[in-house]
Structures are given as structure tokens and as C-alpha cells.
Write a structure and sequence with these properties.
single chain, alpha+beta, PmbA/TldD fold, 2 domains, eight-stranded mixed β-sheet, 21% helix
Length: 480
């Protein structure tokens, strides 16, 4: 891998590049799923290739190949330079990059038990046992359990002198029960919806979820939802669980603070942003309790790494500090628009894609409440748990979220169960209503391995730390 990167950089310089970087990416993936007592699928895939990014005549060029022979690498490098020169005919301002250090380093993510060494039979046995536990309730007519594993090894080098090797494992697992009755099909998931929980780590991370032990409770709640009360339509106080707060952060803070969206460089697929450059250090994004960071240094998070795909070190930076917009997620190029250096947010989905500004671990920093005290302090409202669906406009301003389950809060106590609870809001107003956040003991990092952006579309693996939080004056029970 090191030789391939060095060859690509040399070939790029020889072809006339003023700057070049190259990434060799080797990946291995496995997915297993069962549904209602039967094995649904077992998939595996491997990939190896190199992506070469250059600046020539003041413009970017990119080419990639799975042919890692010297001739294949040289051909890709020449193609990248030729594409840059073609792009230069339409460039208004030449590309400039904010400075960064030069690094010779090796980084690895945490992993105790390599999941690819665990027999397939053992993985399927765990999934089938969890799936069976979900169907202990007669109303649960459909059930599913799944897990997936990823191993990535990369080598990055640049003509500025960096050469960085990185490797990590990701593990993901989850279960879902579907209760059917009276014309309704209601899901209940654990530990999260839309794929469960995903972390950097090995087989030990899946075992820690205790899917089998939690399956009966999940099935019971799914069945109970059939007779639960509908969500009332009103403006009220809401308490939102950590996993849903994480998705709220993702959609209404993570995406709009990506600097390429603010600058209009990303618009076609995922949209732009309601934020402008002039909002930095002035816009009130939320209440004084709302502090949100982008932190790529948290061990075990999907949004963690040693260096991004421009060779910029992982770092912790403030996006919102005590309610005020404090920063954007940037690249070496875009950071110059705000007079800063890159905070290390450029990542690519594999060797055949260019890096884009992507979230790292964007988190709502914890407060100091216990969950019990937070509920006890809430006279009336609704507690929301586990996302079911989401919708937000392309500027990330107006949104609606629905959850799988909720409970009424009356006189500081959780009351009757609510099905299909949902809420709507406008981003700064919603975060402005945050008046309590649970403390570090309730704070957890939630992995989101399916964040889409760009054309051609890239899927990023990101994460968000969050704890249950309370929001005042929220519209709930929006009609469909």
C-alpha cells in the first residue's frame, strides 16, 4: 500500500500536478440477517483500490483505479491531472489549501475480538435466539435481527510529505419486533431503529448489547403499542431520549454546519443550509444550555479516526457554544472562507470517491440532570423514545420527527403509553426551547452508518453523542 501511494504521488508530479494526495483503501464487509425464524441473508464483500486527487493549473482533478500495477497507477495519475487541466478552463479562483502539518503515523481503532474470526454459525445462533425471543408475544407476527461487520485499512500520502496508515473495525447489530392488529403494524426496536447500534469495535460490542436478553421486553412493548393511546395534538413540553436527540443533532445541526453546504458547493443531493458565513459567532442557535461539538477523537465512535482523508489530524471543535454558532465543519479548502484552518472533516466513501466535508462525532454536550429528576421536574408533557421516521427541508430548518413509542408525563411521573408520537419544529426555535439535559451517566454515542451526501452519492459512517433532554413549547401530534 505504501509503495502504491508513493508511485501515485511520483506519477502525479511527473504529469504536472502542483499538489497530489493518494489513498489506498482495502475493505472487507459482512452482513447477516434473520426474519421471523429463518435466515434471510448472508452477504460478504471485499474491495481494494486507489484514489488519486491532484491540483493542476489551479483546479482539482480526481481519478481512481482497482489496477494497482505500476502501469495502472500511472494511468490513473495522468487521468487525474488531465481532468484538472480540463476543469481549469472554467475556474474563477484557483484552489488554495489552508496549511496543515506533515505526519508519518499509524493509527488503529479499538477491537478486542476480530468479528471475522467468529464462526458464521455462532453469529446466526445469536440472531435466531434473539428473533425467537421477540415472538414470545402472539401479537408480534413479524420479527427481525441483524448484524454487520466492516474492516477498513487505508494508506494516505501527499506530495507535502505525509504518509499515514489507519485501520479499524466496525460492528453493528439490532432487533425489531412488528406487532400487527386492527389494521396497524407497529415496530419496536432495540437498541435503536434503522439498523440498531453501530460502533468501532469487534464482536465484543455485539455481545455487550445482549440482544437475546432484551428481546422479550421489546416484543412486549410492541404488543402493548397496539392498545396504546394516539398522540395528542397540542403544544407541550417534550422529553426526548438520547438516541432520538442524536438524530435531531444529525439533521438539524450536523448537516447545516457542513461548510461546503453553507458555501453552496454541495446542493444537488442533500441540499444547502439555512446558515450563512455572517452567522458565525453571532447567530443564536439554541438556549444557553446547548453546546455542540464535532469530536473525531472519541474512542469507539463511528465518527472517530486518527486523520481525515486530507491528512488533517482528528480534533475536537465547537459548532455551538452556549447557544451561539461557533464553528463549521470544514476542509483545507473551505476553511479559508472563514479565516481558519481545517478541523479535519473531509472523508470519502471508499477509494473511488473524492473526500467531502462529512460529520465526525457531532454531540450535544451533557448537562447535570438525572433522568429520574428530569421527569419528576416535568409537570406535564410527553416522553419520546426511538426514532421511527424523519423529514426535514433541504436547508435543514423545518422538520418533523416520529418515534416508535412515547409516554405521557403527568405530575412528574410517566403515565400511559402513546403510539406513533411525533413532533415538529423550526431548528433555532426548537433548540432555543431546550431547558434541561441529562448528565454524563446518561450520555451515549450513537452510530449512524447510513448518512448520504454528494453526487455520485456517498454513504458516510458518523456518530452523535447525546443524553435525554427536555424542550419546551413543542408542537406534537401533527396530522398525517
Amino acid at each position: 500500500m505504501r509503495e502504491a501511494v508513493a508511485s501515485a504521488l511520483e506519477a502525479s508530479r511527473s504529469a504536472g500536478a502542483a499538489y497530489a494526495d493518494a489513498r489506498v483503501v482495502e475493505s472487507r464487509e459482512e452482513k447477516l440477517s434473520v426474519r421471523t425464524g429463518r435466515v434471510e441473508g448472508i452477504e460478504s464483500a471485499e474491495s481494494l483500490g486507489i484514489g488519486i486527487r491532484v491540483i493542476a493549473d489551479g483546479a482539482w482533478g480526481f481519478a481512481a483505479t482497482a489496477d494497482l500495477t505500476p502501469d495502472g497507477i500511472r494511468a490513473a495519475a495522468r487521468e487525474a491531472v488531465a481532468l484538472a487541466r480540463a476543469a481549469a478552463t472554467t475556474v474563477i479562483e484557483p484552489v488554495r489549501l489552508a496549511p496543515t502539518g506533515l505526519y508519518q503515523d499509524v493509527w488503529a481503532g479499538p477491537c478486542i475480538i476480530d468479528p471475522f474470526t467468529v464462526p458464521t454459525e455462532e453469529k446466526l445462533a445469536l440472531l435466531l435466539a434473539a428473533d425467537e425471543g421477540l415472538r414470545a408475544e402472539a401479537a408480534v407476527r413479524v420479527s427481525a435481527a441483524h448484524m454487520g461487520f466492516l474492516h477498513i485499512r487505508t494508506m494516505f500520502g501527499s506530495t507535502e510529505g505525509s504518509m499515514i496508515e489507519q485501520s479499524y473495525h466496525e460492528s453493528q447489530a439490532g432487533i425489531v419486533a412488528y406487532a400487527i392488529g386492527d389494521g396497524e403494524m407497529l415496530p419496536r426496536s432495540y437498541p435503536n431503529s434503522h439498523g440498531g447500534q453501530a460502533v468501532q469495535g469487534g464482536w465484543e460490542a455485539v455481545l455487550a448489547l445482549d440482544l437475546v436478553g432484551n428481546a422479550p421486553r421489546v416484543g412486549e412493548q410492541a404488543a402493548a403499542l397496539l392498545s396504546a393511546a394516539p398522540c395528542p395534538s397540542e403544544v407541550t413540553t417534550v422529553v426526548i431520549d438520547g438516541s432520538q436527540v442524536a438524530l435531531q443533532v444529525h439533521e438539524s445541526v450536523g448537516h447545516p454546519t457542513e461548510l461546503d453546504r453553507v458555501l453552496g458547493d454541495e446542493a444537488a443531493f442533500a441540499g444547502t443550509s439555512f446558515l450563512g458565513l455572517g452567522d458565525l459567532d453571532t447567530l443564536r442557535y439554541g438556549s444557553d444550555l446547548v453546546t455542540i461539538t464535532a469530536d473525531a477523537t472519541i474512542p469507539g465512535s463511528l465518527g472517530s479516526f486518527g486523520y481525515d482523508d486530507e491528512g488533517v489530524p482528528a480534533q475536537r471543535d465547537f459548532l455551538v457554544r452556549e447557544g451561539i454558532l461557533a464553528g463549521f465543519q470544514s476542509s483545507r479548502e473551505s476553511a479559508l472562507a472563514i479565516g481558519r484552518t481545517s478541523n479535519g472533516c473531509m472523508r470519502a466513501d471508499g477509494w473511488n470517491r473524492q473526500p467531502l466535508v462529512r460529520m465526525t462525532t457531532v454531540s450535544l454536550e451533557p448537562g447535570d440532570w438525572t433522568f429520574e429528576d428530569l421527569i419528576a421536574d416535568t409537570e406535564r408533557g410527553i416522553y419520546f423514545e426511538t426514532n421511527n421516521s424523519w423529514s426535514i427541508d433541504d436547508r435543514r430548518l423545518n422538520f418533523q420527527f416520529a418515534c416508535e413509542i412515547g409516554w405521557e408525563i403527568e405530575n412528574g411521573k410517566l403515565g400511559r403509553m402513546i403510539k406513533n408520537p411525533n413532533y415538529t419544529g423550526i431548528t433555532p426555535e426548537f433548540w432555543g426551547g431546550c431547558d434541561a439535559i441529562c448528565g454524563p451517566g446518561h450520555w451515549q454515542v450513537w452510530g449512524i452508518p447510513n448518512c448520504g451526501k454528494g453526487e455520485p452519492m456517498q454513504v458516510a459512517h458518523v456518530a452523535h453523542g447525546a443524553a435525554p433532554a427536555r424542550f419546551r413549547n413543542v408542537r406534537v401530534g401533527v396530522g398525517r
